[in-house]
């Protein structure tokens, strides 16, 4: 956390003949003001949205073995926003975090190729991973945000497998930080963020002080593809490995999935020859 | 279609990534609206025009019989009421004569060729096709077999008043042998539907093309369609194991073998592959279907010189070998057209040439290792200036969309002159640069893209509306250029009616003579798809 420093008064104390000292202090001040965000971005590994989903025969879940996974699209948007903040010199470090099995490292590598500086992999496997819920993830994220001294956490608004839309909100609550969810535009103004949110009624603009949690909505930005030079560079960046226990988080499930089913197959419609027939059919089915 | 886990999210993502061809060019070429006298004089000079337009307004496309006035109607009978009664007996309740029902079948996909067919027949079985042709042959009625009507050379629509035989109702899959991968199906099966049916068995068609949602396997066979997978899986001459066709006199030729090896006599099925329905109507086929690859990756690479492109292609062949499944080429102009007209995003900056390299294999880790070493190599040796790679299906589709939608994007420019030619690899892009010089600023755009792996370039020149100057500059100059380097004037699209004048550009006299003799032997009355392929 950067202390709120009144640079103006500090500068006036230095004698006016010490011009270079003043300039140096000023630019340092500006630098501090500018790149003072350390951003924590959560990236989740989910089944790729172009893949056809199959429900397991025992209805306990969906088939994930051998199925192509990729980064959750909203996490990509969150990652892109963090990279753009860094390009605008507003963020000085981006840390990409993922909770999951060993393959989650691929997702972190993608985030590194997009522009994250380092990665953190919280390894959760097997049954624990299947039963992991947003509450567990948000506890880990909150602890990480404190440990890493992050002052901005950007998450996707929801994951396309869980569709919970809870992690961002819970993380903010656990940290007691303000939250700006469904962000479609983020601007930094002095020491707070101006965020335009997409809500049912239209667009809402809020001001949040830092530190804060933001969740990214679809129209926040269009994520970049990782280009080859960056993919090569990403191979050298570090990914630290941890377990959930390292953060004092207990992964005992709080929810039980009772069953997963396909949605009902759409029934064929019926063609009728006349209005009378239509009315008769409607009456028969009890609709009219 | 993928099942949607979250309908809202998927819908939102689709909307986000979706595009609409803007209704930019409402103006049709001037010869559409001009009277008979002025515009058709210019057309009478040439029998062909490789012109495509934004909107197919059937009623406003000039009839081919008027557009090509020197084309004379053959010595065929005309359809009478008596004939209609017979047709009704042969294919009950599947005889269409209402203009509203037939209009769409009289105009081709590109909206340039319109026939005056009066009757549309929709048989369901080979026996019905046989009965129809036997009758037509006896009466000397000309017939056009029609599949998905997605051809680009006017080969699938009547020129005068030929009877249209639509294969659309013959869409049954007859059998599938999972172990050998042999599929037997009727000719009217739509390629997309075939793939849907094959998918649960882990198989796919050996060929795939942009029109897969509408094109039918019978039509693909009749035009020897190439497509995007040809580099890896070969062409239909190799993948089609058997064909059942009905000859002009109604005889059913059953060469519907499912054997991969059968060297017993002349391989007659090859006659029907690529002969554009002129030697027989394909009614069923057996196709060898490969397995769906477990791992597909795509790399989009940007190069700034053509020498780099060729070096990269060479490196790809050497280092990817058996997993290489497609190498597609786009120039800066074709990338610009998809960005401007369809608002698609290119992940790379502006480069002069783009290469899309696809790998397909059974083991993702193995393929990624090979692909990464190729990418490291081409970056290191500066064969490539920038690139990106994708392994997730969603990103793979996005990258392919850049290449697959060039044709769609070009339509928004207005009038498109399309040329699909095979040229020697070393001169692959020269045709485009020469064309650009030749048409100068008269054209909106000159783009070149295509299948680098098969040395097949699609040259497209666009103008806001039909321009006599541009058209005259292009034809026959493009075809002469191709003939000079012994290339093919029609790599994949066939001859149809639009390219028939150029048959001799890529074939010798004796070869064409033998083709004509075969045609006369198999169809003595010339009723099958007349006026196509051969110049008179």
Automatic annotation (TrEMBL), chain A:
<feature type="domain" description="Electron transfer flavoprotein alpha/beta-subunit N-terminal">
    <location>
        <begin position="59"/>
        <end position="251"/>
    </location>
</feature>
<comment type="subunit">
    <text>Heterodimer of an alpha and a beta subunit.</text>
</comment>
<dbReference type="GO" id="GO:0045251">
    <property type="term" value="C:electron transfer flavoprotein complex"/>
</dbReference>
<dbReference type="GO" id="GO:0033539">
    <property type="term" value="P:fatty acid beta-oxidation using acyl-CoA dehydrogenase"/>
</dbReference>
<keyword id="KW-0813">Transport</keyword>
<keyword id="KW-0249">Electron transport</keyword>
<dbReference type="Pfam" id="PF01012">
    <property type="entry name" value="ETF"/>
</dbReference>
<dbReference type="InterPro" id="IPR000049">
    <property type="entry name" value="ET-Flavoprotein_bsu_CS"/>
</dbReference>
<dbReference type="InterPro" id="IPR033948">
    <property type="entry name" value="ETF_beta_N"/>
</dbReference>
<comment type="similarity">
    <text>Belongs to the ETF beta-subunit/FixA family.</text>
</comment>
<comment type="function">
    <text>Heterodimeric electron transfer flavoprotein that accepts electrons from several mitochondrial dehydrogenases, including acyl-CoA dehydrogenases, glutaryl-CoA and sarcosine dehydrogenase. It transfers the electrons to the main mitochondrial respiratory chain via ETF-ubiquinone oxidoreductase. Required for normal mitochondrial fatty acid oxidation and normal amino acid metabolism. ETFB binds an AMP molecule that probably has a purely structural role.</text>
</comment>
<keyword id="KW-0496">Mitochondrion</keyword>
<dbReference type="GO" id="GO:0009055">
    <property type="term" value="F:electron transfer activity"/>
</dbReference>
<dbReference type="GO" id="GO:0005759">
    <property type="term" value="C:mitochondrial matrix"/>
</dbReference>
<protein>
    <recommendedName>
        <fullName>Electron transfer flavoprotein subunit beta</fullName>
    </recommendedName>
</protein>
<comment type="function">
    <text>The electron transfer flavoprotein serves as a specific electron acceptor for several dehydrogenases, including five acyl-CoA dehydrogenases, glutaryl-CoA and sarcosine dehydrogenase. It transfers the electrons to the main mitochondrial respiratory chain via ETF-ubiquinone oxidoreductase (ETF dehydrogenase).</text>
</comment>
<comment type="subunit">
    <text>Heterodimer composed of ETFA and ETFB. Identified in a complex that contains ETFA, ETFB and ETFRF1. Interacts with ACADM.</text>
</comment>
<dbReference type="GO" id="GO:0009063">
    <property type="term" value="P:amino acid catabolic process"/>
</dbReference>
<dbReference type="InterPro" id="IPR014729">
    <property type="entry name" value="Rossmann-like_a/b/a_fold"/>
</dbReference>
<dbReference type="InterPro" id="IPR012255">
    <property type="entry name" value="ETF_b"/>
</dbReference>
<dbReference type="InterPro" id="IPR014730">
    <property type="entry name" value="ETF_a/b_N"/>
</dbReference>
UniProtKB/TrEMBL annotation, chain B:
<dbReference type="Pfam" id="PF02913">
    <property type="entry name" value="FAD-oxidase_C"/>
</dbReference>
<dbReference type="GO" id="GO:0071949">
    <property type="term" value="F:FAD binding"/>
</dbReference>
<dbReference type="InterPro" id="IPR016166">
    <property type="entry name" value="FAD-bd_PCMH"/>
</dbReference>
<feature type="domain" description="FAD-binding PCMH-type">
    <location>
        <begin position="112"/>
        <end position="292"/>
    </location>
</feature>
<dbReference type="Pfam" id="PF01565">
    <property type="entry name" value="FAD_binding_4"/>
</dbReference>
<dbReference type="InterPro" id="IPR006094">
    <property type="entry name" value="Oxid_FAD_bind_N"/>
</dbReference>
<dbReference type="InterPro" id="IPR016167">
    <property type="entry name" value="FAD-bd_PCMH_sub1"/>
</dbReference>
<protein>
    <recommendedName>
        <fullName>D-2-hydroxyglutarate dehydrogenase, mitochondrial</fullName>
        <ecNumber>1.1.99.39</ecNumber>
    </recommendedName>
</protein>
<dbReference type="InterPro" id="IPR004113">
    <property type="entry name" value="FAD-bd_oxidored_4_C"/>
</dbReference>
<comment type="similarity">
    <text>Belongs to the FAD-binding oxidoreductase/transferase type 4 family.</text>
</comment>
<dbReference type="GO" id="GO:0005739">
    <property type="term" value="C:mitochondrion"/>
</dbReference>
<dbReference type="GO" id="GO:0051990">
    <property type="term" value="F:(R)-2-hydroxyglutarate dehydrogenase activity"/>
</dbReference>
<dbReference type="InterPro" id="IPR016171">
    <property type="entry name" value="Vanillyl_alc_oxidase_C-sub2"/>
</dbReference>
<dbReference type="InterPro" id="IPR036318">
    <property type="entry name" value="FAD-bd_PCMH-like_sf"/>
</dbReference>
<dbReference type="InterPro" id="IPR016164">
    <property type="entry name" value="FAD-linked_Oxase-like_C"/>
</dbReference>
<keyword id="KW-0274">FAD</keyword>
<comment type="function">
    <text>Catalyzes the oxidation of D-2-hydroxyglutarate (D-2-HG) to alpha-ketoglutarate. Also catalyzes the oxidation of other D-2-hydroxyacids, such as D-malate (D-MAL) and D-lactate (D-LAC). Exhibits high activities towards D-2-HG and D-MAL but a very weak activity towards D-LAC.</text>
</comment>
<dbReference type="InterPro" id="IPR016169">
    <property type="entry name" value="FAD-bd_PCMH_sub2"/>
</dbReference>
<keyword id="KW-0285">Flavoprotein</keyword>
<dbReference type="InterPro" id="IPR051264">
    <property type="entry name" value="FAD-oxidored/transferase_4"/>
</dbReference>
<keyword id="KW-0560">Oxidoreductase</keyword>
